[in-house]
Structures are given as C-alpha cells and as structure tokens.
Amino acid sequence: MQNLEFIKEFIEEATVHVETVENGLLLFGNGTNEPDTIHGIFRAVHSIKGTAGFFGLQNIIKIAHVMENLLGEVRNSNLAITNDTVDYLLAANDCLKEMIVDVENSDDRDVSVHIENITAILENRKPNLPNEPAVEFVVTDEKNQEVLFADNEKTIITDALKHGHGLYKIRLRLNENVKANPSPVMFFNKLSSIGQIIDSYTDISEVGGLDDILNADINFIFLFTTVLEKNLITLALDIPEEDIVELDINTKKEDLAQILRKDLDFSSAFQKFDPLTEPRQMVQSSTGMANGVMDHSVTTEEMKPVNSSSLSTPLTASPNVDDAGDMVKKAQAVAVDDTVRVHVSLLNDLLNLASEMVLGRNQLLRCLEDHRKEIAGLNSVLQNIDNITTELQEKIMQTRMQPVAKVFNKFPRIIRELSKKLGKDIDLQMEGTEVELDKSIIESLADPLTHLIRNAADHGIERPEVRELQGKSKTGHIFLKAYHEGGRVNIDIIDDGAGIKVEKIKAKALERGLMRAAEAESMSEREILNMLFQPGFSTAEQVTDVSGRGVGMDVVKTNIEKLGGAIDIMTRPGQGTTFRLALPLTLAIIPSLIVEVAGQKFALPQVNLQEMVRIKPGDPNRKIERFQGAQVLRLRGRLLPIIHLGNVLGLRKESLDTTEVVRVLVLKIGTKQYGLAVDAIHDGEEILVKPLPRYLGECPCYSGVTILGDGKVAMILNPEGISGKANLRFTEEQRKKSAEEEQSAIESMAEAQNLLLFQCSGTETFSLDLSMVARVEPIQASQIERIGEKEYIQFRGDSLRVIRPEQYLPVTRREGQPDKLYVIIPKLVKYPMGILIHRIEDIIQTRVKFNQENIKAKGLVGSTILHNRIVLVINIYDLFELAAPEHYQIHERHSHSGNRRTVLLVEDTPFFAKMERSYLEWAGYRVLYGSNGKEAWDILQNSSVDVVVSDIQMPVMDGFELVKRIRSDQRLAPLPVIALTSMTDERSRQLGREAGFDFYEVKLDKERILDRLEEALRLRREAG
Amino acid sequence: MTGKVLTFYLGGLLFGLDIVAVKEIQRNIEYTPVPDSPAHIVGLFNMRGQVVTLLDLAYLLNNGKEPEKGRAVCIVLKPRAEAPEHIGFLIDRTGSVVDIQDDISEGPPANMSGELTRFVKEVVKLNEELLMVIDSEVIFEQ
C-alpha cells in the first residue's frame, strides 16, 4: 500500500519533470540557447534518474542516464545542440513519459533504440570542440580508493569545489532513514535542496520486484556536494552521522575559497585553479555569475517550489556564508516546499464553506446594522469581517483556477511535428498563457483546441510554394491568444492561411445532402460557415492523417458547448481564418432563473430558456387552448405544448387554470421546444452547481442542486428530463418544421418592436420604442421643482430636466396632475431629459405599420393603430429639440450637407428606418432603402451609391455579412459603410471594425450620424 | 456491543445509534422537499454549505406513525470514506447518551417485524424500557 503511494508520488513528480524537459527542449528547437534552460532540463532528467533509482526502474534509469550524459555535454558547450539532437532527445523523453505512466511494465520495454541514438550523438562529437576537460583532482574514499567519475560529474564537482563545497557519500537505509521522511521522493527533494547530487546508485540485485523494494533492507548511495559541514547534514537530513562519509579531494579548497573571495572575476580565479579551454570558461563564468546573483536574492529563490524543476539553476548554497548557524537555518528554509498537493474535493469543500461564510456574514451585518452606532468599535470590526470574507471567497475561487498555459504548452510540440509531417513552415505564437480558467474547463479544453490547431496547420496554412505565389511569407503563422472579455475568456486560434471558401462549403453541403439548393441561396455566410459544425463534414481536398477525416468539428462544437461556451468562425478568403472560443471562467457557476411552484423554489439554467410569456385571461392574442387533453399555446403561428411544472413533479393535481394569469417559460433543447408553466418567476441568480446527492437515486427532472442566496437548498431543473417525464414526444417532422419556423420566428422577431404605451394629461395614447428607454421612475408630484420656465427633478444625485410632451406636441392638454407620476429616462440621447407622463398603459411587442401620414407634426414619427386605438409614436429627438432648442442649434450647419449625394439606408425596423430617413433627407441626402442586407446588396448591384448606413441585426442577411460582401467586391470595396446599431458593447464594436465598417455609431444621435457621414465621404474623396 | 449510544425518539419509540457514527445533531433546520424523488427522501438541507440528504427513517422502519410535527430535528451521520455525501434523518426528539455493555444487549427478538429487523442491530434492556440500536450501515445502503 505504502509502496504504491510512493510510486504514485514518483509518477506525479516525474511527469512534471518530463514536461520540463519537453518544454526546455522545444525552446532549444527554436534556437533559444539559454544556460538556464539547459540547466533546467539537465536537473529534471537528473531528478528522474535519481528517484527512479529508488524503485530500481532499470529502463528509466538507462534512458535518463544517456540523456543526462548528452545534456551534460551540451551544458559544458562540448556539444552543439542541433535540431536532430533535439528530435532524438524528444523521442527519448516521450519514451520516458510513456514508461513513467506505466511504471509497472516499464522494464519490459525495448529502449535500446533511444540509447543507441543518443550514444551515437555523443560519440560523433564534433572534433573541433575541445575534448574532455582535464579535471585535475582525485577523489578518494575512506579506504583511500580512488572514486571514478563520469566527465559531466567532474564538472559538477569542480563547480562545487569552486564554491567551497564538500563532497560526501551519503548512505540512505530505506527502512530506517526513510521513516523519518515521508517518502524517498521527499528525501531526494530535501537532498537536492541543500546541495547537489552527483550520482546515486543502489544494489537492487536482491530485489524481486516493485512490491518488495521498500521491504528489503537496501542501501542507496548518494554522491553529494554541499556547502554544509558533516554535522549539519545530519541535522538537515535527519540521518545518522555514520551514514555520511566525507570524501577527500586533493585540492585545497581553502585556497580556492580564498581566491574566490579576493577576486570577483570568476573566470580568472578559475584559471588559476584549472586552466581550461576558452568555451568552457565562458560557461563556467556564467554559471558562477548566476550563482553569485542567487546569493543576493536567495529569499526569492527559496520562494520557488523546490520540486517544480522550473528553469532555474541548481540551488547551491553560497560560498561566503560561513556561519554555521545561518547555514542550518537556510538549509531548513530551503528544504520547506512551498507548494502543497491538495485534493480537489478539499478545494470544493473550501469553496462551499466560503459561500456559506458569505451568507453568514450577510446575516450578521443585517442583524447588527441597527447597533452599529450604539456599540463603540463595532463598525470597524464589521467592516473588517466584511472585507476579509469577500477576499477569502475570491482567494478560494482562485485555488481552482489554472493558467491556460497548461493546455497551450503542448502546442509548440504539435506544430513542430505537424510542420515536418506536412512539409509546411509554421510558426506558432502564443499570447495570454497566464489567463486562468477553472480546472475542469482547462481539462476539457485540450481536445477541442488540439483539433483546431491541427486544422489550422493542415487546412488553414497553405504549402510554402503556394504562399509564395500569393505574395505571402513562406512561413505560415498560427496565433493562439487567450484574453478576458466581459466576464468570459476568449481563446482565438488565428491562422494567416487560405481562409475558408464559402462556396466550397456550400457545394460540399449540397453534395452531402446537408441542405437543399434553395436553402443554400438564402443562407448567409455565417450560416454556411456553421455548416462546418455539422456531423460528417470535411472540406479538406485530401484526407491526410493529420486531419480531414470528416469527424471532429461537430465534436469540437459539442464539447465547447458542453462547457457552457460558444465557438465562432471568422474568415477572409486568402487572408486567414479565426476560430474564437468564448468560455465561462468557471463551470461551477451558471446563470439561472429562480421559479416557484407550490411555494417551492427551483433554479432553471438560462441556457435553455428562450423567452418568457405571460398570458392574461381573456387576451385574444395569446391564449392557452385545450384539445385532446393537451394544452397548447399559439406562439407566433405555431403550437407550443404547455406543461405545468407542478403537474410534472406531482406537486399539484389540477390542470392549468386559464382563468388566471399564466406564466410560461419557453424552453428549447436542441430543436425541441415546449412551454413550462410555473406559478411565479423570481429573479435571475448566479448559482453554484452541486451534483445531485447519490441517495436521491434517479431523478430525471433535476440536473443538480444549489444553495440559494437565502441559504436554502434548491433543485436545479433539467428541461430535457422534464420533457421526458411529461411524455412529450417530439416527432422528426415536428423538429424539421420547427427549425423552419424558428427562422420565420426570428424574422418576425427581428422586425417586431417593443413599444411602451403611455398617456399624458390628455386622452391620446403615445408610444416610445423600448430600446430608447433606460428606465421608468415613479415620482411624486411634489418632487418636481420649478426653476424659471423649466421643471426639474432630482435623479441619482443630479438634477434632471423633465418635460411634458403635451406642451410641445399638438395634442390635448388638461390642467392638474395626479400625485403620482412617472418619468421616462431615455437612453441613447446626448442631452438627457426626463419625459413626464401620467400613466403607463402597457408594453407590447408588435410590428408597427404606420398609417397614412395624416397626423403629422414635429416630434412625432407618425401614428399607428394598436388595440383599436390610434397611437402616436414619439420621435424623441425631435421632441427634445423642441424642448431644448439650445442644444440642437449647431446642427443647422448640417442642412444641405448631404448635397444630393446618395445614401443607402439599410434598416429592418420600420420605426428606425423612418426616423433615420427623415434625418438624412433633412440634411439633403438622396435616400435609397433596403430592409435587410440582401435587399441592400441587390440595390448596390444596380444603383450608384455614395455611402451606406446599415443596421447590424437584420433578418436574411445581417450588417456584418453585408459589409463583408462589400469589402470583398472589387467594385464596391472602397465604399464607405457606417454601422448604426443599438449594440453598444465593446465586443460588437470590435466585431464591427473587424468586419470592415468605417464607423460604428449608436442609434440614434442625429448630429453624430451626420458628422460621421460627412467625415466618411470626405475621407473617401481624399483617398480617391 | 459495548460503548456509547445516542438515543432518540421516533414515532414514540426509543432508538439508539452508536455515537461513533453520528456527526452532529441539527435543530430547527429548514429543508427543501424534493418532489418526484423516492418516498423515503424527506428533502435536502444546507449544513454550512454542504447539502445533506434527509431520509425518512420512520418510513424506512415501516413505523407507520407520522413523525411529530413542529421543529425539525435531525441527526447527521458521519459520511463514509467511499461516499463523502452527507445524510441525515429526521427524529422527533433526542434522548441522552447511554453507556451500554454486552450483558444488557442482545440481538433483535425473533418476533420483531421484518422491516425493523433489517435496521435494528441490537436491543438493549434498559431499566425502564427497551432501546433499539440501529445499524447505521443499513441506512447508508438506502
């Protein structure tokens, strides 16, 4: 049992070491030749060999030994490292890796190939390099017998002597000495932390196998150099003094130390001691310098985990510390390992406790709130607890985070091998390797990322000769970038290869029968690119053994989505492709909606939530109908099956009561869609997902449990399981149909607007598009203060002017006002003012059809009929201009700025189209109009246009797609295109710029738009 | 057996549990019922961030009697190494801790009902009444 644990520890440890070796070797492959790197590799191999010795793992020792010899030569500059050398070493390292994973059978492997290869390199040393340095010392043991060393070992000894170290032979009796130490691995680490191990050997001939290694009384012999005196080693290693033998070296180390102290020039000091050839000196002096530096910064060195084998030089103690007491302290400090392996379950427990502590803190603060002033000193104590708790939670969250470097690090190797295999020259650059993600995400990211990287190398990057023909650099570039964006982590895989040919995907999809020709015509570029993620799709002209086997992209997509992430493709023909993975920081926390049934709260993951529908009894537009015992809702022209969560869970017997308000959550799983009725809908909450307790058995309706903000446990609903439990049968046909209908639903959604209906003092009903409303605040009439002619309210610590629309519009006005009023706070305007209204009537989603223009006035867009009533649609910009002309005077200069130039306005919402059109025409532009990208594209083919102003989110073809088409069309490419959108986030802006928009403007600042138009036209003129 | 036993009342009967198996007693807990779960599951509750599954021991013992309404008191068992999730069960009220020796305890009588014999490891002959010591291992098997 204990044996197994030691071996497990060895495997963990050695795995880290082989990784260090691999990363280091790859750095060499890239031409980096830092002495630190080679030291790091050397030390890692050395450690593997040393610990493997404990277990008598002959093959591992053999390989590590030859690797060590070769690396030793490289380290001493006796051997130049070539790409071939790196390849052989990598191959040997791979072999080591495999053997470490399968330690039990490692000795059955044939490792002779690697040993021969490396020995061959060693033997074929270039003759012009100096031969073995003549190290002039003889080491004798207690019986005065000479101890023989390998050449690289001699180097260590000379190095050590230079620093005034002693040379010791240490005998470790496994059964006795190791008991004092947790394990042989720990002992080895301890040993290497206080000095340097030159060699270790053991007589294992009596050991039958792995199992009895630790039972047999075996002696391990270490040859070891350290600055410590014999008695101090005893203390530091906790082994009896008789097991340590000081070896006699025939060089007077006192003299050496003297020289070293007198003269800081290490190389000249060294020459006195041992005249060596030039290149050798360089290395020696640089190691000497490195050690010198370390002496001054020994505290920072100590901070590094000793066993991490990071690329640091071996830690040797300083020569100028000669106070024995200090040395012991130091040796102990160094021996303390500052990383601890902790089981993930413990971290999870900590995370739980921290969340619980936050709840406790909240309760405490609430309870003591009233006593803050009464009890002296309480306030500061509470604040302290508050801060510490928050910080504690954050820190604990961090413990589960790991840098993406963990995944990224294997890609240099993959690219190196792929470029060889494919005969391409590929350069991989990585950025943001320090970006951290939750452990579980990091782990599941390896496969999808590897797939994308392989794809980029195989399909993306062209062959060198093709690249040259196209005027690109022969070397292809793949750029792997991780960065934070809006609470998520994005990983971009960017190649500068051929890009993805949309036509080719189309053809392939048609050929495979994945879509019909008619469909293909109407599909946007984005939709076609998404075909790549269909199962069984591959466009590689030739199937190589690297990629193109027709599996994968769908799996990549599924895997990424399983993590709660998304994948996106951006491509430009001839210029390259970008795959963007957007990932949540942590898996465990998901956004959810809290719903209630029969007084009990449940959490519903928002991933599956499509929309929420509130059905009032007697609403003719939305009602739940019943037929054949089933209840359905007509939602945008199709039937949505409705089930009540209470019925599914057995919390209620009676069926849905349609005489009361019914709240329906429209859920979507894949292509299946159904409505889940609940009693109440509460807020959204970010929840920490915990697995279902095992004791619950099979509960298909739940996917987990969580603890809500109030400290109570809530079940997390599983929409898939609920539909199964409710026996919802979705037929194949339904699915297909729903996919089609979904498209039309999206289209109708895109055109529909959310309107806020309200009334002022008169009888007229007004409406305002919700996208322009920041919020609606209820106020008391007494809060309105008059200053001169104008009225103000206090809003968020500032004064806000409020206006009454009836004062500026040709509508009825009545004196007197109710006590309670509302203020609409608008957004997307430059000079905000509140709109004072008397009553909020409703919020409705509708497609506005403007009536014949018989109600015309400045401040109104027009009129429409809703609920059998005339509703006046307010033009907020005109209204504000009427109310505060001083802010809007300047733009008079814009009138006639259009100068009869032609603008193509692309906008799907009639309301915005109408307003934008009015501005443009006011400024003297001739306006052509397209209601989506496709219409606009057709207009562009037939008419001459000076500038395009386009919305982004539109049905059929969106703004991104339109601008991409314009930019890739030779004739149209120079056309200025301005995006006009309500998507104000930075990501959309960036996407917009990437897609090729000249300007990205937010709806609907009249003045800015006109400014931008002029600027865009001027720039084009200048460029032309 | 010999050792300390925590006694408690459930459905009017006196039961006991080897104190080594008990993690803690929780009073005034607010638990969340789990609709559509097995009948012997009462619900889940939050014990310092750990979700504890509450079993209905009375139901399992086929005791018939409903547990006394009112404050929910429960005994939380120490999780076993191979199953780190916590479980607990509702009781009516706690009794005390009694020392028992082998000489006052014996196996369940032959005429005890079938369900009870599954759970009851031993019967302890206290001075006033009989104490049924429950085998916590059997609870974990639910």
Features:
heterodimer, A: 1024 residues, alpha+beta, Four Helix Bundle (Hemerythrin (Met), subunit A), 7 domains, 6-stranded antiparallel β-sheet, 6-stranded mixed β-sheet, 35 helices, globular, B: 142 residues, mainly beta, OB fold (Dihydrolipoamide Acetyltransferase, E2P), 5-stranded mixed β-sheet, 3 helices
Folded structure, characterized:
- The complex is a heterodimer of chains A (1024) and B (142).
- Chain A is of the alpha+beta class.
- Chain A folds into seven domains: 1-128, HPT domain (Four Helix Bundle (Hemerythrin (Met), subunit A), Up-down Bundle), CATH 1.20.120; 130-341, no CATH class; 344-392; 403-584, Histidine kinase-like ATPase, C-terminal domain (Heat Shock Protein 90); 589-741, OB fold (Dihydrolipoamide Acetyltransferase, E2P) (Beta Barrel); 752-883, OB fold (Dihydrolipoamide Acetyltransferase, E2P) (Beta Barrel), CATH 2.40.50; 892-1023, Response regulator (Rossmann fold).
- Chain A is 41% helix and 24% strand.
- Chain A contains 35 helices and 40 strands.
- In chain A, the strands form eight sheets. Chain A has a six-stranded antiparallel sheet with strand order 2-1-6-3-5-4.
- In chain A, helix 3 packs parallel to helix 5 and helix 8 packs across helix 14.
- The radius of gyration of chain A is 37 Å and the shape is globular.
- With 142 residues, chain B is mostly beta strands.
- Chain B has a single domain (3-140), classed as OB fold (Dihydrolipoamide Acetyltransferase, E2P) (Beta Barrel).
- Helix content of chain B is 11%, strand content 45%.
- In chain B, the strands form two sheets. A six-stranded mixed sheet of chain B has the order 8-1-2-11-10-9.
- In chain B, strand 1 (3-10) and strand 2 (13-18) form a beta hairpin.
- The two termini of chain B are 24 Å apart.
- Classes of the chains: A alpha+beta (1024), B mainly beta (142).
- The A-B interface holds A 345, 349, 352-356, 600, 648-651, 690, 693-697, 699, 701-702, 705, 707, 711-715, 725 and B 30-38, 41, 43-46, 48-51, 53, 55, 83-85, 87, 142.
